[in-house]
Amino acid sequence: MVRASEISSATGLQDAGASDVGASGEARASRKGLCWTAAVLWTRREEPLMEGGRESVRRSAGPCRWSAGGGFTLVEVMLAIVIVGTGIAAAMQLFVTSTQQNASAARMTVAANLANNVQELMAKASYADKDGDWTVFGLETRNGVTEPLSAANLSLDIDDFNGAAFNPPKDAGWVDLNDTLLGVGKGLGQYTQRVTVSRVSHTDFKTVVTSDEGVRKVDVSISFKLNATTGDQVMHKWTFYRFNDMTAKGPSEY
Question: Which residues lie below 8 Å from residue 14, measured CB to CB, with a gap of 6+?
């Protein structure tokens, strides 16, 4: 046990040290974090700390310092870096994926509008050749000259568009959607409008026939080419049908 007289003596030393500081010294000690501590050293009787097995009280004075034992080890810091780095990498990947999906959605929207342009463009064409020659499927040749696929051709019919590919794409008024119209760098030269026209059965629109039965199927596909080294990527497909709206039925019976 620590003797009361020794504790009293140590306490007295502490009080004496504190009183020497004075009123202003106490304030300064408070600011600087100075403190006086009494350390009681003890041991078992069979292992005396000091000669004679007496417990002693010693006084230590100096600035109060916090122990550094509450910090992080190198392993903990490295583990935290790995965890944070993994989270940042995942967030960056999510950002890249989101950007790509937004770009793809924008292209699909443009492609859908371009497909609608083709349908409006073909709405002005007749169901079949106005001259009554329905045996020709495609652009007709007159006087040795193949008619053009353009707005200048007033005798266009649906089958004239078979196999057509428009690049740059066209709007509903045959205007090229290029840089000249939309501004440099804003043209749609990466898109291509492709058209396929086929005769189908009037009882089953999925069955392609060789002779006309009064129904023609139009397949429109819009492709996108990112650059010269990549192939065309089909962004949108659109199918619609045209029915014989002419007074004459044509050569086949249906």
Answer: 36, 38, 59
The tokens 């999906």 sit on which residue? 101
Mean pLDDT in residue range 56-71: 54
pTM greater than the 0.70 cutoff: no
How many residues belong to the chain? 254
Pairing of strands 165-166, 191-199: antiparallel
Report the pLDDT value the prediction gives residue 11, as an integer from 0 to 100. Answer: 47
User: What would the two tokens of residue 93 be?
Assistant: 């990947």
Q: Which residue in the block uniquely carries the two structure tokens 């078992």?
A: 44
Over residues 49-57, mean pLDDT: 50
Residue carrying structure tokens 């009361």: 4
User: C-alpha 74: how far from its chain's center?
Assistant: 36
- Using pLDDT thresholds of 50, 70 and 90, give the confidence band for residue 237: very high
- The DSSP call for residue 213 is -
If residue 57 lies in a helix (H) or strand (E), which one and from where to where? Answer: strand 56-63
187: nearest Cα among 112, 103, 114 = 114
Tell me the C-alpha distance between 106 and 98, whole Å.
12
